[in-house]
């Protein structure tokens, strides 16, 4: 086989693998609107209605608007900062982490944590979808619905970003049309101005608590932005798709939830969205769940693919990892085990924001390994070496996660992220982060 044929074959394989362990070349990237639909799809989920209803039960409408604004700004700043790094380097979150604070083996740990957390939520979402389908349609037992729900998402994710983009173009408009119709029927029974002026029906919720709910609800999605933004073509594209996707998702979906809570005087608004009729309710449930759950599994597969290479030196194709993780998550959902692991998944969620703080600090301020990334970027390859592990980063990571867990003032997820950013920067200033040429190992 000729050299050019070998290169073509390798290129096809990398494309099929969605460049899980490589830089995404310019030719494989997408227009910002395609990526924005994916971002918005992650937020146009039933959980956003529930978030809005929670705010609506405890706050007046304009107070809820302020909380959503503050939470959305926090998410956008985090997502844009780390997303631009992912776009420039064309790397997923966990591969970028090798040169953004954690080192090769530290990035492997990051990959495992992200993979376990997102795989858990993949299973939870599959179980939620199964429960809804069972209620709406009856038929087979709940465990079988769980299997069907999990396998449906797995099939989509095996086809990578391209397949997920096609699904987004179908499910996001369908969800908005179907859910919008169901909601408009309910809200048309009351005066919009009266709903905006009405007092909340539940216990009061202060601004700090509400902002925490908004920012904390999607902070993991913001942290893993490189997984998505590596498909963008420019800094401007990252900013446009992030601001549009997050702003529309938070305002459009969450504020409707606020109005529904004021109209119905209850936080159980999802029933209104999903049970208007069997067919429509089923379609709303499927379209709302599919778009967020495919990203749960997709980012989990990227994290685990990186972890396998760093920990064991084994290159496994992302589609294979996707199938294995999809089967595991589906099995756990069908067995009902994940119902008992919610607290564990929430704990892992607290551990993920500091990752963004460390990566942003290293990439933009400390810059120990930024020159190596920039030097290799022009040739489209990875730097030949990476730090083996950065002990200071791991210590900061754990400390910041503990702050997020136990310091209840303000926004816990943001507290953890800011502490990680500041602590890592200080650690580098006092010489605890090694120079680029020290403790390096082969990058792959």
Automatic annotation (TrEMBL):
Predominant location category: membrane
One matching Pfam family: Transp_cyt_pur
Record localization: Membrane
Annotated organism of origin: Sphaerisporangium flaviroseum
TM region(s), chain numbering: 40-59, 65-87, 99-122, 142-161, 166-187, 207-224, 244-264, 270-290, 320-338, 344-366, 378-400, 406-427
PANTHER family: CYTOSINE PERMEASE (PTHR30569:SF0), CYTOSINE TRANSPORTER CODB (PTHR30569)
Keyword Ion transport: no
Topological relation to the membrane, as annotated: Multi-pass membrane protein
Record CDD domains: SLC-NCS1sbd_CobB-like (cd11484)
Protein family according to the UniProt entry: Belongs to the purine-cytosine permease (2.A.39) family.
Alphabetized InterPro entries for the sequence: CodB, Pur-cyt_permease
Keyword Cytoplasm: no
Highest classification ranks of the organism: Bacteria, Bacillati, Actinomycetota, Actinomycetes, Streptosporangiales
Identification of the protein by name: Cytosine permease
Protein keywords: Membrane, Transmembrane, Transmembrane helix
Gene3D superfamilies, sorted: Hydantoin permease (1.10.4160.10)
Source organism, top-level taxon: Bacteria
């Amino acid at each position: 086989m000729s050299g050019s044929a070998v290169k073509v074959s390798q290129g096809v394989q990398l494309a099929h693998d969605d460049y899980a362990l490589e830089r995404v070349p310019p030719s494989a990237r997408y227009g910002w609107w395609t990526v924005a639909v994916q971002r918005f799809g992650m937020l146009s989920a039933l959980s956003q209605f529930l978030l809005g209803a929670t705010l609506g039960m405890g706050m007046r409408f304009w107070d809820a608007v302020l909380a959503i604004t503050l939470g959305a700004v926090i998410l956008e700043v985090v997502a844009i900062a780390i997303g631009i790094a992912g776009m420039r380097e064309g790397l997923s979150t966990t591969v970028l982490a090798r040169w953004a604070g954690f080192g090769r083996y530290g990035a492997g740990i990051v990959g495992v944590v992200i993979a376990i957390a997102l795989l858990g939520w993949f299973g939870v979402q599959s179980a939620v979808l199964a429960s809804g389908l069972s209620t709406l349609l009856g038929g087979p037992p709940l465990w079988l619905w769980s299997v069907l729900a999990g396998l449906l998402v797995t099939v989509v994710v095996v086809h990578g970003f391209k397949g997920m983009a096609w699904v987004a173009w179908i499910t996001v408009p369908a969800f908005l049309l179907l859910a919008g119709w169901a909601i408009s029927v309910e809200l048309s029974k009351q005066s919009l101005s009266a709903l905006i002026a009405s007092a909340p029906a539940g216990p009061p919720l202060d601004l700090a608590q509400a902002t925490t709910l908004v920012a904390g609800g999607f902070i993991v999605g913001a942290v893993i932005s490189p997984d998505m933004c590596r498909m963008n073509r420019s800094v401007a594209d990252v900013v446009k798709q992030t601001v549009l996707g997050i702003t529309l998702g938070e305002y459009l979906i969450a504020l409707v939830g606020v109005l529904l809570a004021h109209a119905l005087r209850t936080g159980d608004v999802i029933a209104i969205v999903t049970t208007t009729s069997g067919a429509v309710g089923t379609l709303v449930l499927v379209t709302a769940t599919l778009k967020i759950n495919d990203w749960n599994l997709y980012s989990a597969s990227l994290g685990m693919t990186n972890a396998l290479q760093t920990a064991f030196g084994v290159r496994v194709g992302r589609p294979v990892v996707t199938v294995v993780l999809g089967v595991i998550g589906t099995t756990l959902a069908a067995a009902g085990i994940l119902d008992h692991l919610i607290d564990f998944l929430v704990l892992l969620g607290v551990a993920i924001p500091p990752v963004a703080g460390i990566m942003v600090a290293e990439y933009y301020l400390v810059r120990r390994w930024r020159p190596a990334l920039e030097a290799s970027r022009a040739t489209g390859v990875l730097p030949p070496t990476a730090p083996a592990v950065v002990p200071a980063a791991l210590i900061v990571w754990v400390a910041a996660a503990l702050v997020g867990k136990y310091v209840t003032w303000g926004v816990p997820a943001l507290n953890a992220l800011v502490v990680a950013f500041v602590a890592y920067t200080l650690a580098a200033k006092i010489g605890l982060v090694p120079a680029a040429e020290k403790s390096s190992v082969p990058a792959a």
